[in-house]
Amino acid sequence: MGLTALAKQIQRIARSGLVGAAMALAAASSVASPVDLPGELPNMAGLGIGTTTEYAGGKDRMVGVVPGLRYVTPGGRLIEWYGPYAQFNFGGLTGFQWGPAASLRLGRSGVDDPVVSRIHDIDTTVEAGGWIGYEYLHEGSIPFRLRGGINVMTNAGIVYGGARVTANASAWVPVHRRVYAGLGLGATWVSDSFNRTYFGVTQADSAASGLPVYNPGGGLEQYTGWLALLYRIDKNWYAGAMVYAQRLAGDAADSPIVTQRGTRNQITYGIGLGYAWR
């Protein structure tokens, strides 16, 4: 496999990490069943397969496989790794949580769209930052979990400047002894440098592709939402399915890359399998 093909495959796997990550998250963050002790969610390793778009704002699709992990260290610290995103929790397993985070920010190169392929390539890069959140466990005949938080990530000017800030909230509730339902909502704010990199069209891009020059500013970049079902097969095995939706907003949604060649509505979906242990 040549370097270009290898790089594209890595991007596909990472991009579809949204699916595998979601499935691992579904398994790892599931609400405790009636027979579980409060707060004692299991460790879990998962694998997901699904389909998503080739790049943000695009409409051509691809399929990929990616792993995920939720692990509580002997010291009681939580490590979460969901596809391209990983975080470490210095706080409690419930209540206030905070810590460092890292993410693989996907680039754009070798895409199928014949026009977008003529626009500047974007390298895949690593983001770093931190997060803070709160997790609430409701104990009772129908237990449920609520989790919310904010993370701030930056690429320190390697590919884009400024920061990317995401706020999100999620809930998990049992609907049957073996079935759990989850939903989540979120929104992301980005710097003008981020939008220029991923949604801008330079003079050179316009001459090569025929798209109009576009110089976006920063602001609200997208809304997100997801729905998931998790089935507990037995003591250790879980299976799940998930749909994750992104709706581009603001200057990102107005980019000709989106309005003329793609779509502001991005849908990711897939299935996954997870193994849990204590």
End-to-end distance, in Å?
A: 40 Å
Radius of gyration: 19 Å
The CATH architecture category equals Beta Barrel
- Spatial ordering of strands, largest sheet: 1-2-3-4-5-6-7-8-9-10-11-12
The CATH superfamily name is monomeric porin ompg
Largest sheet: 12 strands, antiparallel, barrel
The coarse silhouette is globular
- What is the CATH top level name? Mainly Beta
DSSP summary: helix tally: 6
Sheet-strand content, in percent, reads over 45%
Pfam families: MipA
Keywords: Cell outer membrane, Membrane, Signal
Subcellular location: Cell outer membrane
Family: Belongs to the MipA/OmpV family.
Description:
The chain has helices at residues 3-15, 17-28, 192-199, 203-209, 250-253, 256-259; strands at residues 43-53, 61-72, 78-82, 85-89, 95-105, 125-138, 144-154, 163-174, 179-190, 219-232, 237-248, 265-277. The chain is of the alpha+beta class. The chain has one domain: Porin (Beta Barrel), CATH 2.40.160. It is globular, with a radius of gyration of 19 Å.
Key descriptive features of the protein:
globular; single chain; disordered N terminus; 12-stranded antiparallel barrel; alpha+beta; Porin; 278 residues; 6 helices
Topology:
Blueprint: H1 3-15, H2 17-28, E1 43-53, E2 61-72, E3 78-82, E4 85-89, E5 95-105, E6 125-138, E7 144-154, E8 163-174, E9 179-190, H3 192-199, H4 203-209, E10 219-232, E11 237-248, H5 250-253, H6 256-259, E12 265-277
Antiparallel strand pairs: 1-2, 1-12, 2-3, 3-4, 4-5, 5-6, 6-7, 7-8, 8-9, 9-10, 10-11, 11-12
